[in-house]
Design a protein that fits this description.
alpha+beta; 3-stranded mixed beta sheet; 21% strand
Length: 77
């Protein structure tokens, strides 16, 4: 099963790391894929996931896919 979470660090006034920490702590998540745009503000999602890993004490496989403003995949790491 896969679950999709959507957020915008620039437009949403919320600390994503708190909710992600709760999700990681209370569920058997197997991996995380972060899909972000190339714009700088989307880096906040990556930072929130890193913080959630530290706070939850869990380290699971994860990777980041960066999409350009034209829709092209710029990076998949």
């Amino acid at each position: 099963d896969k679950i999709t979470l959507i957020g915008c660090p620039k437009l949403d006034d919320v600390d994503y790391s708190e909710k992600l920490t709760q999700i990681l702590s209370e569920n058997a998540i197997k991996s995380i894929t972060i899909l972000r745009m190339e714009v700088p503000c989307c880096g906040g999602i990556v930072n929130a996931v890193k913080t959630a890993f530290l706070k939850s004490g869990k380290m699971i496989p994860w990777h980041v896919v960066t999409i350009g403003i034209d829709g092209a995949i710029l990076e998949d790491r």
